[in-house]
Amino acid sequence: MRRVLLSLILCAQSASTAAASDLAIFHTASFGSSRSVSLSLAEGGPAHDRAFDFDVVITLSEFDGDGTVLYRDGGRHQASVRCIAPAMVRINSADYVIDLSTRPGTDWKHDLWAALCTAPVS
After folding, report:
1. pTM more than 0.70
2. Percent of all residues in the chain with a pLDDT value above 90, rounded to a whole number
C-alpha cells in the first residue's frame, strides 16, 4: 500500500511541477526575489530498513527570479522517512526527529516527511 501511495505522490507531484523542473518539489527556500533553491523527490520506494517507511532520492535545483534553472545538482541524495511516532528522517546514518508542530516551509526535513506521510489517501 505504501509503495502505491508513494508512486501516486510522485506521479501527481511530477505532473503538477513538470513545467518548473520535471521533479516532485517538496520544499523551496527563497533568497530575496532573485533566487530560490528547491528540493525534489526524484524517486522512491519502500524502505529497506523496517524501522522506516520510505527510501527516497532527493535532488536540488537553484532558480532565478523568473524560474529559470541556474543550477541542478547532479547528486542523488538518499534519505529514509519514518511516518509513525517518532516521525523521523534519516540522512546517511544521522536520524532527525521531526517536530510535527513545525510550520510547512520552515524545515526541509519536515516538508519531506509531510509530503510522504500526510498525503491524502482516497
Report:
1. yes
2. 70
